[in-house]
Amino acid sequence: MVDQYPPDFPKTQLEFEDRFSTEEACRSYLMSLRWPHGFRCPNCGHTHGWVNNRNLIECSGCHHQASLTAGTILEGTRKPLRMWFIAMWWVCTQKTGGSAVGLKRILGLGSYKTAWTWLHKIRTAMIRAGREKLSNKVQIDDAFIGGEESGVSGRESFKKARIVVAVEIKETGRGLGRIRMRHIPDFSASSLLPFVMDFVEPGSVVQTDGWRGYSSLEEKGFQHIIIRASSSPETPLPHVNRVISLLKRWLLGTHQGRVSQKHLQHYLDEFVFRHNRRKSKHVGLLFQRILKQSSESTPSPYKKIVELASGLN
Ligand SMILES: [Zn+2]
Questions:
Q1: How many CA atoms are closer than 13 Å to the CA of 71, on its beta-carbon side?
Q2: What's the 48 CA to ligand 1 centre distance in angstroms?
Q3: Residue 78: other Cβ atoms inside 10 A
Q4: What is the per-residue pLDDT for 200?
Q5: pLDDT value at position 313?
Q6: CA distance 73 to 56
Q7: Ligand 1 centroid from CA 42, angstroms
Q8: What letter would DSSP give residue 43?
Q9: In angstroms, rounded to a whole number, what is the distance separating the alpha carbons of residues 91 and 98?
Q10: Could you say which of 46, 137, 180, 217 would form a disulfide bridge with 61 (CB–CB 3.0 to 4.6 Å)?
């Protein structure tokens, strides 16, 4: 994955702390991410301005005030930017991600709900990162996420959440490439095919099991290879199944299984973001990426996040 931003990011905890110790420092960094080629007044096009302590940039030409955070997930926050920077840095430096309980503790936030909302806002910034399609050879499978139910099996279960997962297989045949995941309402072709078309480059080799939901992949322009369970003990789609079990372990571990269907997609986005950047040399690059995306995303107040996420149920 190419990170196109300038290599101007903190590389260590110490660098992070030194660099972002004031609101002013946070503001000017955010400004440089939002206007990488320098500030440009949206009103008159002038290129000089200063930021005041309300996060407003005043154009020195026409005195138009542009907001540094308007239209971003940081819009309307009453907390210092510094706290957001710390939250984002913390999320990036936790190898397995952070929980709302953890964030509440380190920031001294007043409530669990606030910490939870912050994490969800940060997750919405992760979604936008890396929308390039997977290519070459891709393995796809669907799965259930959630509590065990007795008496129902396989695709007949109704209460668990359904997801579909794609993983690129590296040239060597070993090791996992980039991944994508989506929470879907059912395992029908009308849920599975749009996922493949959204996330996999046409012409790629796509491996799935024999489920009929995948049967028209050839018509959609993919080289479809159906891998059926054989007598060998190995699962027919080992790569994608490895990703699914890592996801399940993460949901049970970091989040102790307390993820509702309503919000599942946000967690999937975080998992994908982390997985696709797990070999990133610098945690600071992840931090910078999230911050950059934050400075571009639309605002996601608590209510909107809940509304958005409830669309799937
Ligand atoms: Zn101006």
A1: 7
A2: 8
A3: 4
A4: 96
A5: 29
A6: 16
A7: 7
A8: T
A9: 6
A10: 46
CA distances from 190 to 195, 213, 217, 219, 234 (A): 9, 8, 12, 14, 29
Are 272 and 199 in contact by the 8 Å Cβ rule? The answer is no
Contact call for residues 117 and 303 (beta carbons, < 8 A): no
Quote the ligand 1 centre to 43 CA distance (angstroms): 5
Cα gap 176→290, rounded to integer Å: 23
Rounded to 5 degrees, what are φ and ψ at 29?
Answer: -70, -45
pLDDT score recorded for residue 232: 62
Distance 44 CA to ligand 1 centre (A): 4
Whole-number Å distance, alpha carbon 74 to ligand 1 midpoint, is 23
Expressed in angstroms and rounded, the spacing between residue 208 Cα and the centre of ligand 1 is 55
210-268: pLDDT as tens digits: 999 999 999 999 999 999 877 566 778 999 999 999 999 888 877 766 677 888 888 89
61 CA distance to ligand 1 middle (Å)? 5
Q: Which residues contact 208 (CB under 8 A, 6 or more apart)?
A: 139, 140, 141, 214, 217, 224, 225, 226, 227, 237
Distance in Å, CA 68 to ligand 1 centroid: 14
* Token pair in block for residue 150: 């007795």
Question: pLDDT tens digit string along 146-200?
Answer: 765 444 444 444 468 999 999 999 887 778 999 999 999 999 999 999 999 999 9
Distance between Cα 80 and ligand 1 center (Å) = 26
Tens digits of residue pLDDT in 97-135? 788 889 999 999 999 899 988 998 888 888 765 578 999
Task: Compute the distance from residue 77 Cα to the ligand 1 centre, in Å.
Answer: 25
Length of the chain equals 313
- Identify which of 206, 164, 204, 219 has the alpha carbon closest to the alpha carbon of residue 188: 164
Both tokens of residue 309?
């996420």
